[in-house]
Amino acid sequence: MFKGFAEDWVETPGARIFVRHGGDGFPIVLLHGHPRTSATWHRVAPTLMDAGFTVICPDLPGYGRSVIAHPASDHSSSSKRAMARSIRSAVETLGHTRFYLVGHDRGSYVALRLALDSPAAVARLALADCVPISEHLARADAAFATARWHWFFYAQPDKPERAIAADPLAWYGFDADTMGAENFAEVAEAVRRPEVIAGMLADYRAGLAIDRQHDEADRDRGKKLTMPVLALWSIRDDLEKLYGDPLAIWRAWADQVQGARIDSGHHMAEEAPTQLTGELERFFG
């Protein structure tokens, strides 16, 4: 995986970030989702690098090989604001103060928060398989609770740690053939580590509390994304089933938003890398 990429750990005030990076051009930062690592981009990142971009793929704080410096009992150290600060700090340490930003799944919430808090740093923003956390929770009917039950289970104390740790590979049901052997091996190793399980669950626990509060505060103030935004969603996942056209939600959050449907299940970077990369190349130019 990632031929031609360097691997580094970058110290930031909030976390020690593991990052893959390569290329020579305007930077694109790719943020993965749950329960993946930066390896999920192994079929996308090299193509973007070949297209002339510098491509930066961090492990989110608490995921993979990125370690949160001082985990907080109230999960504030795993808030999307804290994660976004660590990611931005790591990218700046690599020499980039302005960049394109892509987030998928949980990584999209980090990307959204980074773009809202630091709009001067984000030239363009692509968000995949998401709407803001507060918008999900405002629509949390029976259909949402059935589809996203794990959001609420992961917020419980102790039980999710024990359930996942009993057999992480069975819990997540990874498909090694779809993921690719090296990606599968990396993620399988990560989710066997108790500190990674704890970090991923802290992400969800923050989501239902402090992250929702941050979203709602921005919405109440009328704060919006000022950079061009691309919303992507997997047509064989549940976003359209839950909400219809996701752009109807994103138009309340972004001045300039366009969308595209990806013919895949949820993990689009692994299942539909050619289509996803094509949409990103068109958007980022």
TrEMBL record:
Q: Name one Pfam family in it.
A: Abhydrolase_1
Stretches assigned to the AB hydrolase-1 domain: 27-242
Alphabetical GO CC annotations of the entry are: membrane
InterPro entries xrefs: AB_hydrolase_1, AB_hydrolase_fold, AB_hydrolase_sf, Epox_hydrolase-like
Name the domain of life: Bacteria
- Output the Gene Ontology terms for molecular function: catalytic activity
Task: Give the protein name, as stated in the record.
Answer: Haloacetate dehalogenase
